Amino acid sequence: MNKLLIWQQEIGRKLVGHRAFRCHALLLKGKKGIGKFTFARFLAKSLLCMRPDADNAACDKCASCGWFEQQTHPNFTQVLPEALSAVLNDHTVHADASAREDADDQDARGKTKKKPGQQIGIDQIRRLNDLVYLSGHQDGYKIVLIYPAEAMNAAAANALLKKLEEPPEKTLFILVSHQPRRLPATVRSRCQQINMPMPDADTAVRWLKQQASDSGAAQNMPALLAMAGYAPLSALSFQENIKQHQQFIEQINAAQRFDPLALADSLQNQDLTMTIDWLQKWCYDLASCQATGKVRYHPHLEVHIDKICQQINQQACLAFIHFLNLRQPLSRHPVNGRLFLEEILINYGRLVTSACTPDMV
Ligand SMILES: [Zn+2]
C-alpha cells in the first residue's frame, strides 16, 4: 500500500484487499485534485497482477504489471476525452474525432483547426465491445477505466448504461468522477459508489512539503493549498502558474485603478477556464468575508479582501458570483474568448468601483 497517497491507504486496503465487489461497476467520486485517477490505476493494476503481494497490491514484477505500465495490457483499457489523453500521452485510448466539439481555432495562417475533444463519445464506448464481450486474455479479469466519467456525452452514457444493465462476465468498469451529479442517475445507481477521501489541511501541507523537498522548490505551502481549493494534487499543478496568479491578484485587487481591458489583454493566451476559476475563488472570498468575516482561498490576503469588502455592495457581489457560475461552463468553448473575458472583467470592474448592481443578465 506504500505506493498509495497517505490519505488513500485505508480505502486502498478495503478495495484491493477483498477483491470482491457487489457490482460490476465502481464509481470513485470526490473533489478534483485528490488523486482519484492514480488510485483507480493502482486498483486496476493490483486486480490484474498475477502475483499480488501480501496486501493484495500489484507486485510490479510479473508480466501483467509490465504490460500495464507499457499500456499494452490485453485486459485493460482506459477511456478518456481526446484532449486529456493528449495531455497524459495515453496510447490505449480510442480517441474519437466524432466527440470533438465545434470549438474551432484559427492558426497563424488563418486556417481553421479542430481543438481536441473534451467529451467521451459513443464510439469510444462501442469500441469496448471487443474487450468486454470476448473472453479475456488467459480468461482473466477485464477492466475498463473511464475518466472523468462526466465527460461522457448523453449518447456515450446511454451506451455504457446498456453494458451495465447486462454486465459482461468477469468485467469491472471503474468510473472516476469529480462531478458525479452530471452522470445520469441510471448510470450512478448501477455502480457501487465510493467516496474518495480527501486529506485534512495539515496532512496535505506535509505531503506538499515532501514533494517540494524532493524537487527543491520553496513555497508557502498552506497558502498554495488554500488557493488550489485544498486539493493537494491541484496545488502541485497550481505552482506552475503561481506567477501569473500573483499578477492576476495584483490587478483585481487594485479596485479603483482596475483596468478590465488591460487585464483581458494580458490574459488572452491563458486558459479561460482557469482564469474564471481564479476569479470565482476570489469573489467567493469577498462574499464570505462580508458575510462571516472569514476567507477560504486567500487567507494570506485577508486584510486586502476586507478592505475591498467595505467598498462593495453585498447583493451585487452575490449577483456577480451567480453570473460567474453561469459563465463558467461556457468558458471551455466560447464563441470569442477575448470578448467573453472582457464582459466578465468589465462586470467585475463595476462591482469593485461602485456600489451599483452590475447589469449581468
Ligand atoms: Zn504483478
Can you offer a commentary on this structure?
The chain has 361 residues and is α/β, with parallel strands linked by helices. It has two domains: 6-195, P-loop containing nucleotide triphosphate hydrolases (Rossmann fold, 3-Layer(aba) Sandwich); 201-353, no CATH class. Helix content is 47%, strand content 9%. The protein is built from 17 helices and seven strands. The protein has helices spanning 9-18, 36-48, 63-69, 82-88, 122-126, 129-133, 154-165, 185-188, 201-215, 221-227, 232-238, 242-252, 260-266, 272-292, 302-309, 314-327, 337-353; strands at residues 25-29, 76-79, 104-106, 112-114, 142-146, 171-177, 192-195. It has a five-stranded parallel sheet with strand order 2-5-6-1-7, with helices on one face. Strand 3 (104-106) and strand 4 form a beta hairpin. Helix 10 (221-227) crosses helix 11. It is globular. It starts with 8 loop residues before the first helix and ends in an 8-residue tail after the last helix. Residues 49-51, 58-59, 61-62, 64-65 line the site of zinc ion. The site of zinc ion has 9 residues, from helix 3.
